[in-house]
Amino acid sequence: MKLKVGLIGLGRLGRVYARDLSSRIGETTLTAVADTDADLAARVAAEFEVPASYRHPEELLADRDVDAAVIVSPTHTHRDVVIAAMQARKPTFCEKPLALSLEECRAMAAAVQSSGAFFQMGFMRRFDPGYAAGKQQVDAGRIGRPVVFKSTSRDPYRPSLEYANPASSGGILVDMGIHDFDLARWFMGDVKTVSAVGGVLAYPEMASVGDIDNAITTLTFADGRLGVVDLTRNGIYGYDITTELLGTEGTVRIGYLRETPVLTMTKNQVAHDTVPYFMERFERAYTLQLQNFAQNVLAGREPPITIRDGVEALRVALAATRACKTGQPVAVDSITN
User: Fold this and answer.
1) Are residues 211 and 260 in the same domain?
2) Does one domain contain both 133 and 273?
3) What is the pTM of this model?
4) Is there a single domain that holds both residue 50 and residue 19?
5) CB-based contact 143:252 (threshold 8 Å)
6) What CATH number does residue 41 fall under?
7) pLDDT in tens, 94-150
8) Same-domain pairing of 179 and 328
9) CA dist 114 to 109, 137, 295, Å?
């Protein structure tokens, strides 16, 4: 049995999901796609031999040949689309971040609870083989008790100014940092307080949309353990994603920078290539998380990443954003909107 999936949102990641759902995941059949650009929806449907394409999510959700929905539309649309999917009683997968405000999150959580429909958040790093193996080692006690969490995310270049605009993306600490804050909670538990600094240091034009290009956040977890997350849009040399757990009996370090297993050594120089960008680094993780979603729905299993995970990661990101703007530490539980 295969899960008949409708895909909402056909941007950069949406097209990757269309490929995976239609051809790379044995448990799924892509039966419909939707995008506000109707021509794009029609082109993607033709490319991946999808029977139906729509302009509006509601049309896709009303399609009787759609058993479940995968939402990859822009973050500011998530609230309305998730609520519509819950009202349609469709098992739903939603990409990160959940929304741009906790008020939106509360409405979405209420819809999930009242509908009783399956809902799974998309935090693909949890499905990356390296992160999954690291989590197993931490849980098995290989490094004793983790006491410090360190995570670095460096993009090789800035996104478009339209994308970076906090009105639609939430800003660097929400859009980009949400992965690191989810990992922090996954490995270490709830975050109690955050402090943050940031600035426009590499791309002056970022200021025109009200975002920054570098930020450093320090975390204090509920049990007193510590963490730090640093984010940059100007990695230049490549896409550099690393996470480290320092424990009482050892350390787990996750991530890699060299993409191809080739090292060139000449006089006075040793060189290798680097990971180009996020799709090369996490291509398998994206596929695995969609496969996991389909398997969970078909088998009637509980979601491994719940709407609460999406809410709490966003709460930390919003607290970090406030701390960065005010220069003052922020209690995470003080963020209510």
Assistant:
1) yes
2) yes
3) 0.96
4) yes
5) yes
6) 3.40.50.720
7) 999 999 999 999 999 999 999 999 999 999 999 999 999 999 999 999 999 999 999
8) yes
9) 9, 37, 23
Tokens standing for 40?
């794009």
pLDDT per residue over 171-213, tens digit each?
A: 999 999 999 999 999 999 999 999 999 999 999 999 999 999 9
Q: What is the CATH number of the domain that holds 173?
A: 3.30.360.10
Compute the half-sphere exposure of residue 43: CA atoms within 13 Å on the CB side of its CA: 10
Q: 327 and 259 share a domain? A: yes
Instruction: Give the residues across from 5 on adjacent strands.
Output: 30, 68
Range of the domain at 194: 126-277+312-334
Residues 86 and 136 in one domain: no
Nearest of 100, 202, 212, 208 to residue 162 by alpha carbon = 208
Tell me the per-residue pLDDT of 299-321, one tens digit each, with 9 for 90 and over: 999 999 999 999 999 999 999 99
Contact 290, 306 (CB under 8 A): no
List strand residue ranges (DSSP E) for the chain, in order.
3-8, 28-34, 52-54, 68-71, 92-95, 119-122, 146-154, 191-199, 214-221, 226-232, 240-247, 251-254, 264-266, 269-271, 330-331
